């Protein structure tokens, strides 16, 4: 394996007395994975147990239950959460997720990963996350708007441009952020464009925000292919998830000359080993709502997307999809994490032992929060940057972070995830100490 990264066998990884706090929920699932990654970083950094305990727990969290009237006149009570994991380095930053399976432990894990992501990219934010447990696909636009406004009102005391800044995530988009911004203004009496990011341009959004996560993944891809000595025109990819992130990345790959052999969405998967015409596929999805039925490819088992014999496999949907049960089926040279937490700790160990290069989420998909930071700065300055400046600054930050993590991993004999997490946790721990918060 080149890239200057040494994959460390599981048996050689450092151990220590630090264990997961007993009251943080189950040791499995996203939260279990997040705590395990933190524990490993804390051991390598030789952090005091008390500091580990502090970093393993959310600093603040709120759960709200709020009634919303549906179009038929019925009233449904929904549950929502907002978690601020750590605010030592700045205001909370993280998305709002609308999905049926949203629960507090999932949001806690996502908020923790946001803390490390912001620290790794050297952005002056802490980590936060939020979500409401419902399926927006089963609700009308009017119902989703009322849910958004009611949820925003319920947490309006908890968010703000200097305390906690939401953004889009799974099931939400720039329109959702427009509703949140307006609802916050109505609840607080303050017009504050910096209270959310990922807004429409007409409401103070930033050029390049919609494609930022995909672009960041693309910039990392081009850097790692160069380090591996693989020409883009000879590389191939498969992408699980063809939404905002996966669809945008597929378009980036097509433009760069990387052939996309397989993609999937919530309805099914398609495959063409000669390469899928992504522009035509995106038009098909816009018309039909799914990749299924695209005439330029054949339908395949969704499991084949992760197991495709390609250069790069990108899980870009939800967390926990690459597990101990299917990790051995991964044949790609590189697993690039487009989603947050898609790889379980058990799968991580298997992939490391097999020599698969895993580019972790807190590095790979951080383009979204980087440009969210740019948008927040623009809102505070009341000055809009050009699209060229946004894209240039994003590329520079992504490549700087890639080089830092790559060099650390090579020099210390760590995986990329171990290095990225240790760097991020170390920065947060140092700030905790300097502020006298520990």
Automatic annotation (TrEMBL):
Residues 206-436 form the Glutamate/phenylalanine/leucine/valine/L-tryptophan dehydrogenase C-terminal domain. Keywords: Oxidoreductase. Coiled coil: none annotated. Residues 1-10 have a biased composition (Polar residues). Signal peptide: none annotated. Residues 1-30 are annotated as: Disordered. GO terms for molecular function: glutamate dehydrogenase [NAD(P)+] activity. Belongs to the Glu/Leu/Phe/Val dehydrogenases family. This is Glutamate dehydrogenase. The lineage of its organism: Bacteria, Bacillati, Actinomycetota, Actinomycetes, Propionibacteriales.
């Amino acid at each position: 394996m080149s890239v200057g990264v040494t994959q460390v066998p599981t048996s050689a990884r450092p151990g220590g007395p630090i264990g997961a706090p007993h009251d943080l929920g189950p040791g499995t699932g996203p939260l279990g994975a997040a705590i395990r990654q933190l524990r490993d970083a804390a051991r390598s950094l030789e952090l005091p147990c008390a500091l580990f305990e502090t970093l393993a727990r959310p600093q603040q969290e709120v759960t709200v239950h709020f009634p919303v009237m549906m179009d038929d006149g019925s009233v449904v009570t929904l549950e929502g959460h907002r978690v601020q994991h750590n605010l030592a380095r700045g205001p909370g930053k993280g998305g709002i997720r609308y999905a049926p399976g949203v629960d507090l432990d999932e949001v806690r894990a996502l908020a923790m990963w946001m803390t490390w992501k912001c620290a790794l990219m050297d952005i002056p934010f802490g980590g936060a996350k939020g979500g409401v447990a419902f399926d927006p696909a089963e609700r009308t636009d009017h119902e989703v708007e009322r849910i958004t406004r009611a949820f925003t009102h319920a947490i309006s005391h908890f968010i703000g441009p200097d305390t906690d800044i939401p953004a889009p995530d799974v099931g939400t988009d720039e329109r959702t952020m427009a509703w949140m911004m307006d609802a916050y203004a109505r609840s607080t009496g303050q017009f504050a464009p910096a209270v959310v990011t990922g807004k429409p341009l007409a409401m103070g959004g930033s050029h390049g925000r919609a494609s930022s996560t995909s672009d960041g993944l693309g910039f990392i891809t081009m850097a790692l292919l160069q380090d591996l000595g693989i020409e883009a025109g000879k590389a191939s990819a498969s992408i699980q998830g063809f939404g905002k992130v996966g669809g945008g990345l597929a378009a980036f790959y097509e433009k760069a000359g990387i052939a996309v052999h397989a993609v999937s969405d919530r309805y099914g998967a398609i495959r063409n080993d000669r390469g899928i015409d992504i522009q035509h596929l995106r038009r098909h999805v816009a018309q039909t709502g799914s990749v299924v039925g695209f005439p330029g490819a054949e339908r395949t088992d969704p499991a084949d997307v992760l197991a495709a014999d390609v250069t790069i496999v990108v899980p870009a949907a939800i967390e926990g999809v690459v597990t101990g049960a299917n990790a051995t089926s991964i044949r790609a040279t590189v697993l690039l994490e487009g989603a947050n937490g898609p790889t379980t700790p058990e799968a991580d160990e298997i992939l490391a032992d097999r020599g698969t290069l895993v580019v972790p989420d807190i590095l790979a998909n951080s383009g979204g929060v980087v440009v969210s930071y740019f948008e927040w700065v623009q809102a505070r300055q009341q000055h809009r940057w050009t699209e060229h400046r946004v894209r240039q600054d994003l590329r520079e930050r992504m490549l700087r972070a890639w080089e830092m993590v790559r060099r650390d991993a090579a020099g210390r004999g760590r995986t990329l995830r171990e290095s990225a997490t240790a760097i991020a946790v170390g920065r947060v721990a140092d700030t905790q100490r300097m502020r006298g918060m520990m």
